[in-house]
Amino acid sequence: MGIRVNFSGRAIRYTEEEIAVVVEAMRNADPLTQGTYMRAFESRFAAYQGVPQGSCFTTMNGCAALELSALLCRFEPGDEVVIPSHTFTASAYPYVKKGARLVWADMDLHTRVVTARSIEAVLTPRTRAVVVVHLYGYVADMPAIAALCKEHGLLLIEDAAQAIGSELEGKKAGSFGDMGIFSFHSHKNITTLGEGGMLYVRDPALAALVPALRHNGHCAFGFERADYWKPAMGNVDLPMLDDVPLQPANYCLGEVECALGAKLLERIDSINDEKRARALRFMGALADFPQLEFHREESRRHNYHLLAARMTSGPEARDSFIRAMHDEKGVKCVVQYMPLDRYDYYRRQGMGQAACPNADLFYDTMVSFPFQHWLSEEDLEYMIEASRQVLSRQG
Ligand SMILES: *Cc1c(COP(=O)(O)O)cnc(C)c1O
After folding, report:
1. pTM tops 0.85, yes or no
2. What CATH number belongs to 268-394?
């Protein structure tokens, strides 16, 4: 049969008010990049996150924010970065590009994120930084991980691309570490027209470098110019980075996207709450099939960006479930996040070694259900019923 419930490439539909904000910015923004809308988005995002003003920077996507964070680490040859093997590739390769060697930390089989213990197990004297990914939208145990990083003098970076709005002990995902990155990609719980990102930098001295690194190395001259047009409109000078390759780029996000991003912050909590309520309903409706194991979290620690389960009866049962859901019911489930050490790219980089049995087991048995915010009630009910029928038959 044809596809009835697709795994959509788009997470949300826009309200008329959000569309009006976009149209207004299209008409009036001047300039169309790096203007008042960008400053408003950064300022409101910092307020939402509960972090100081001036510490958040829009970027054209989450990957650009990760690359800036990698640059700010100022790696030296031999430096290692600990990162989960079970994550999206964009969490990892920016650090390879900027000179680090990746060391893979295992995930917890139940929560699907790294733990202080799994990170500690792979620390070496060369570890410089730890990247924690709040995968699927669930905040890892940041108090314990931050304490571990402090004890060992390590930079702590949070990839909160999937976890906007998730919180633990009253603190938002992405606000616990030295840096945090966010994505407003088409798939994420809020999206700025398909692409967009944010970087949080805690240390004001490092944060001061971001605007120049984000925009071609441009900065102000350190002296008063008698003629505003001489010697040039802007300076290019990053003295603090002279000891590492100076690698600015243009990572800016346009004004229309920024206007929309600021507006969407008004709706993120309700989007997350609605997704969580639905996820809990879905799990409840399948609770009599224990072979399909979910991670149940009733608090705002999980925003249920994705709805993922594990088929404890093994890889063949998983494959036959996905096949039947697709071929017979028209529901397109997918499998996500092959452990990165298993990809040829990371193997060729000499990063093919990992001791991450949980990540391997999870990946080989996981099922990710369609879970875009705009999924209709009918389609959600249909997906529950279809899952129940296929699972009953599998026994
Ligand atoms: C989406 C995502 C990214 C990259 O974000 P983009 O905005 O698509 O560049 C990084 N890490 C994780 C975990 C993601 O899900």
Report:
1. yes
2. 3.90.1150.10
